[in-house]
Each structure stands twice: as C-alpha cells, then as structure tokens.
Write a structure and sequence with these properties.
This protein has helices spanning about 15-40, 45-85, 100-105, 110-125, 130-135. By secondary structure, the chain is mainly alpha-helical. It has one domain. The chain is elongated and about 70 Å long.
C-alpha cells in the first residue's frame, strides 16, 4: 500500500474508511432508529428489528476482530523468525518469552535495534506502547488490516 508520509508512532494507527466511516455509522444509526421504532410501536416486529441490527453489528465487529487476530498470529511468526535471524544463537532461547503484544510492537523496530529492544522488553517487561514509543528507526507496516 503506497503512502506519501513516512510512518511513525504518531501516525501508525490505521483507519479503514469503509469500515470506520461508513459501516459503523450506518449500523449505529440503524440501531438508534430500530430502538426508536420499538419505543413508538412496541411489538415483536420492532423488537426483531433491534435484534437484527445488533446481530449485524456484532457480525461486522467480529469479522474485523478475526482478521486482526489472524494478522497478529502472522506478525508473531514473522517476528520470531526475524529475531532468530538477528539474535546470536546464545540468546535465541529468549524469543519464546516475549509476549504477543511485545512481538507485535517489535515489528516496527528496524533490524538494527530489534535485538536490543527485544532484550529490553524482556528485562523491563515493556508494554506494546512502551516498545513503540522507544523505537528510533521506525519500520513501517502499511499492510495492517
């Protein structure tokens, strides 16, 4: 995915315009209208409208969560492989001790700083945000879902 500005901590969060600015607002309005219809005209049909909108909203959110979870699993694998390549053999046993959040944050670290940052993440139990804030040479990830 081409982008014009370099990615960094302050702009790395990705918004998906069709999802965030169309699907979610449309479902929020539909939910509000279905509740309003139920209040004005209580009954099985108007209650069913609320249930249907809630089901579609849950479907939209769960679909996005599933895609993110799969991507997180791929990132974990990629980072374990990258760290195994970058770390001295004597340190590779430390890789499984990194948490999922730590591995996901390390994807933004350049090869030059990934090993040292992984060691620091383990020794200081750094959070995902702490790791991202510490990165000096940002390695962009423009493909995040």
């Amino acid at each position: 995915m081409a982008t014009t500005s370099p990615q960094n901590y302050s702009n790395h969060v990705r918004r998906d315009p069709p999802f965030h600015f169309f699907i979610l607002p449309v479902l929020a309005v539909a939910f509000g209208l279905s509740v309003q219809a139920f209040v004005r005209n209580p009954g099985l049909a108007s209650f069913w409208g609320i249930l249907f909108v809630v089901a579609v909203l849950i479907l939209a959110l769960k679909s996005r969560m599933y895609a993110n979870k799969v991507q997180d699993r791929v990132i974990r694998l990629e980072e374990r492989l990258r760290l195994a390549r970058l770390m001295p053999e004597s340190q590779r046993a430390q890789i499984p001790k990194l948490t999922e959040d730590q591995l996901i944050a390390l994807r933004f670290a350049s090869d030059e700083e990934a090993f040292a940052l992984a060691e620091r993440a383990l020794s200081q139990n750094l959070s995902r945000e702490d790791i991202k804030k510490t990165i000096k040479n940002w390695r962009p990830d423009y493909w995040r879902v």
